[in-house]
Design a protein that fits this description.
two-stranded antiparallel ribbon, 8 helices
Length: 241
Amino acid sequence: MLRFAVTLFAVMTSSTCQKYGCLEGDTHKLKPSPEPNMHECTLYSKSSCCYADFTEQLAHSPVIKVKNSYWNRCGQLSKSCEDFTKKIECFYRCSPHAARWIHPSYAAGIRSVPLCQSFCDDWYEACKDDSICARNWLTDWEWDESGKNHCKNKCIPYSEMYTNGTDMCQNMWGESFKVSKSSCLCLQMNKKDMIAIKYLLSESSEESSSSSSSSSSEEHACQKKLLKFEKLKGEEGEQTR
């Protein structure tokens, strides 16, 4: 039964990709395609906007840098913090859905991708004791002639840089992400996203956001699908024991 959910995700991914393609970043493909040999970001292996060789940079811990962007300017990230940072990097670089939220004035960027509150809270909890020197990782660095990033300000704990998970999610990557008021119509950067994506990608979803009754209906339908998916996943786990 879980295979049905996986097949549904593949079908939705295919139709979405045809409509949106990929972002226009320096590591992105023109169109998403399967990457069965990914070293990391395997959530997107069936339809990926990045090449498998790109994910080699993320495959070993600690991650030192991605392209010319160093992650360790204030010391190595803890494993838990690094794992969340990888999820964000994988979504931006590899997700076939990222272009749904393409920035209107910058084709390589994203804007207002809805993240679940629980994801942001867990991300903050994972990173709060790590150190950081840039509040906005897109703009608050000193870049040298070779394109490498350096701190402009002193390193301080995440817990001092950001008030909470909401503050971090909505500022660390500029305006790339927002915290959703919904607990289902949002992304968690895991397999549960296949449920939310179905509704987030529907044209009527965005249009109906101004109607509380329509929005409530979409939320209810999403929650119902999510519960069914979790039940199927649980049954699959029982069968493999």
